Amino acid sequence: MQTDRRKFLKSTAALLAISGWSAAQSERSPWQVDDISYQQRPLPYGYASLEPAIDALTMEIHYTKHAAGYTKNLSDACLAEKVDMRSTSLVSLLAQISNYSEKMRNNAGGHYNHEFFWHSLRPVVDATVAAPSGALGAAIEKRFGSFNSFKEQFSDVAKARFGSGWAWLVLHNDGSLQLGSTPNQDNPLMNTATLKGTPLLGLDVWEHAYYLRYQNRRADYIASWWSLINWPVVSMRYQQGLR
Ligand code: MN3
Predict the structure, then answer these.
(1) In this structure, is residue 46 part of a structural domain?
(2) Per-residue model confidence as pLDDT tens digits over 85-108
(3) CATH number assigned to the domain comprising residue 172
(4) I want to staple 221 with a disulfide (CB 3.0 to 4.6 A). Which of 33, 77, 210, 232 is the partner?
(5) Is residue 66 part of a domain?
(6) CA of 225 to the centre of ligand 1 (A)
(7) Ligand 1 center to residue 30 CA distance, Å?
(8) 240 within some domain
(9) Is the residue at 7 inside a domain?
(10) 127, 226 in Cβ contact below 8 A?
(11) CA 10 to ligand 1 center in whole angstroms
C-alpha cells in the first residue's frame, strides 16, 4: 500500500505540474493543497489565467471582494462567538455549525467554499487533463454511466439550483458518490445540510461568479467551467476521502 501511495503522490505531483501549477506549488506536498484554514490563501494562478471561461475582472472582484469579505466576517464572528481559531479546525466548526449564529454559518461556509473552489480550478493548458483518470475516473463511470453523463447530471443540478448556491459532487463513507446542491453558502460538511458528505468538487452558481461575462446565461457559464477543473486535485480529495 505504501508503494501505491508513493506512486500516487508522484503521479499527482507530475499531473499538478503539467496542469499549470507553479514550480513552488508543485514542490509542495499535494496533500497540503486542501489544507483550508481561517486565512485566505493566495490564488494559485493570476486573475486572467482562467480566461476566457472566467474573465479577469470577475476573478478579481470575486476573490478580493466577495471571498475576502467572507474571510473577514468569519474572523469577526469567531471573535464575537468565542471560537478559538487555533484549536478549532474549520471542518469541525462546520460540523457543529448549528450551535452558532446565521452570520457564522454564512461566512464560515462562504470562506470554506471559495478556498475549496479556487483550488479546484487551473488554467487550461492541456486537453489530456480535461477528464478524471484513475480510481476517480472509474468510480464516476461506474456511478453515472460515463463521464459525459456525469457532466450532464452535474450541470443539471447546477442549473436547477434556484437563486444562489452551490452544486456538489460528494463522497460518502461507504465509498459512494452523490450529486446535489446547497443554498446560499451552505456546504456538505455542515451538520445542518440536506446534502452531506465529503466534498470532491463544487461549483459556485451565485450570480457574482459569472454575471459580468454571462449575465443571465448560467448554463453557458457552467458549460465553460468544465474546461477549468483541476482533476488531479479532485482525485486527491477522492483518495483522501477513501482512507
Ligand atoms: Mn462566490
Answers:
(1) no
(2) 999 999 999 999 999 999 999 999
(3) 3.55.40.20
(4) 210
(5) yes
(6) 14
(7) 24
(8) yes
(9) no
(10) no
(11) 32
